[in-house]
Amino acid sequence: MVCECEAIAAVAEGIAWAQAVAALMIIGLLILIIAFIISCVALCCSLNITLLPFIGALLILVVILQIIALIIYPVKFNELIFEGNYYYTWAYGFGWGATILSIGCAILFCCLPRYEDELSGLAKTKYIYSSA
Predict the structure, then answer these.
(1) Hey, where are the domains in the chain?
(2) Distance between CA atoms of 114 and 35, rounded to whole angstroms?
(3) pTM of the shown model
(4) CA neighbours within 13 Å on the CB side: how many for 33?
(5) Which residues contact 20 (CB under 8 A, 6 or more apart)?
(6) How far apart are CA 24 and CA 64, in angstroms?
(7) CA distance linking residue 42 with residue 46, whole number of Å
(8) pLDDT digits (tens, 9 = 90+) for 57-66
């Protein structure tokens, strides 16, 4: 009976990291969806510049969660598999790609308030060539 309980505890410990990684990625996805909805409201319905840094902060939070999950996954997975080499599937690369895009979007949304005049259409048009 004691051996069965120890085996169940060992299996549960082996699965806990995978559940934590999945939870971090799902929480990041939910925050990303919320940031997308807020950005649609801020940019499409009415130009609300004050929401843009908040959206950038949400995206930075998503990046932090994704990086933590994407670092935990290969470390714990390699501890579980003792064969040496293992090639990760396309989903791992897709996760890093989504993280890089989220970093770019976070920088973009943090910098957008500087270009309020250009976004609202009040900026004077700048021409490259002058007619002299």
Answers:
(1) 2-120
(2) 20
(3) 0.78
(4) 6
(5) 69, 72
(6) 10
(7) 6
(8) 999 999 999 9
